[in-house]
Amino acid sequence: ILLNATDDANDANDPHLDLGTAYDIAAVPFTLSAWVKPTDYADYRNILGKRHLGSADARFDWLLQTSVGTVSLDSPATARDFTNAVPTGVWTHLVVVATATSTSLYVNGALNETLGGFTLGTCTAPCHANIGDNGEVDNASGGTDGDPWKGSLDEVRVYNRALTPSDILTLYNSTATACASPAGYAGDEIYNNGTY
Asked: Where do runs of H (alpha helix) occur along the chain?
């Protein structure tokens, strides 16, 4: 899906996919996976997020950092900022495996970096989960800082378990037309070209 953020300081007018307030990642461990092709880093580029207003009232944000494009998985309790910078204009497969003891980034099927454990945040009000921004712009309180995606995203996936390195390599090597997935479990969510 192509999401072209306007970068006009009004993130509320930028395209994104609203998954609603009921969608959630219940607990660690979990795995996030997506094919990304960012255009630029003029703003934070949120792949998937769930928040109300501001980063202190968030469940999680999976994003690329402004200016440099490094991968982050953040919550009010934990900021996991990896050193890998994702190139613009090129499809890159990203996977983050979060557990209570470690958070690992895989790039194009290979382990890139491992940091400390991850703790999900707690929203104090209903939080929207969004693909292509952090969820803030869809809340009734009128948030306007969505950290919108600019570029293309595909096969955004959330697994309710820690995928193994073998699972991740299989996922990377699978073709988009087959939309192959490691052995499924109840709770897996896959966004692929407009369908779940």
From this structure: 165-173
Residues of the chain under the 50 pLDDT cut: 176-187, 191-196
Q: What is the pLDDT of residue 128?
A: 85
CA end-to-end distance (rounded Å), the chain: 13
SS3 state at 74: strand
Q: Write the DSSP symbol of residue 66.
A: T
**Alpha carbon distance 177, 110 (integer Å):** 22
Residue 21: the pLDDT is 87
**Widest Cα–Cα separation across the chain:** 43
Q: What is the pLDDT of residue 196?
A: 37
Between CA 69 and CA 86 the distance in angstroms is 6
Tokens representing residue 155 in the block = 């096969």
Query: E strands of the chain, at which residues?
Result: 2-4, 17-20, 30-38, 45-51, 58-64, 70-74, 79-85, 92-98, 102-107, 110-116, 128-131, 150-159, 189-191
Nearest to 77 by CA among 32, 21, 116, 34: 116
Q: Determine the pLDDT at residue 133.
A: 87
CB 60 within 8 A of CB 49: yes
Kindly report the pTM of this predicted structure: 0.88
CA distance 79 to 119: 9
- Tokens at 164, concatenated: 């193994």
Give the type of residue at 112: N
